[in-house]
Amino acid sequence: MAELAGRSALVTGASRNIGRAIALALAEAGAAVAVNARTSRAEAESVAAAIAAKGGRAIVLLADVTDEAAVRGLVAAAAGQLGGLDILVNNAAVRHEVGIDDLDYAAWRQGLAAILDSAFLCSRAALPHLRASGAGTIVNLGGLSAHTGAARRAHVVAAKAGIVGLTRALAHELAADGITVNCVSPGLIDTPRGTASASGDPAHHARHATLSGRRGPPAEVAAMVRHLCGPAARFVTGQVIHVNGGAYLGG
After folding, report:
1. pTM for the whole thing?
2. What is the DSSP string of 136-169?
3. What range does the domain containing 207 cover?
4. Mean pLDDT split into 10-residue runs, the chain, 251 residues
């Protein structure tokens, strides 16, 4: 079902893990996709190649989404090369762990910039194109720890909680323009996480368990994003939708 045929999307942080899965899911639904990464060109081109191999259209755009001028260029390039912009998925993030005693101001600002500032900058830059779409969509990626809290992640938790506030504020402000704004909040997703803990997972994951008894694949997060970008979800806005197998049962 190509419910997004004729539409175009920009996905930030789309070179791996959940971002990659989102780009692939939107392309499978028929959208042309701008795959953004900051520096990992080879991984971003791998995503674009996977889309092209299935008959879809994708372009790769490297940009630092914490840089205002770079964001303006990114959005202009995406809209220019794809013939407009209907969908923005703010997925870029950092996830490293550090205790509050060792969290200096530069690292604090880096976390907020990568997650919250980038969503603000990309959303604002994309607004003229989303308004022109007539069915514009913004999906922000939140996170489990924004709702449960977590040690050694003050910068990430604060930024992800800010994403929830930004989502609700923009939903109010942009409704009259026909733009929906929602937040998808993943939790306990089976993705490579580097060396956040001895297991490679964020430490707070050890304190949670899913009701489903398994970790979720990135594709299940991407499926929810795809739905929110489609015509069947035009009455859904300002919502935080949790995709976590029942690890958190909040609003």
Report:
1. 0.94
2. -EEEEE--THHHH--TT-HHHHHHHHHHHHHHHH
3. 8-243
4. 96 98 98 97 98 98 98 98 98 94 97 98 98 98 96 97 98 98 97 53 66 94 98 98 93 63
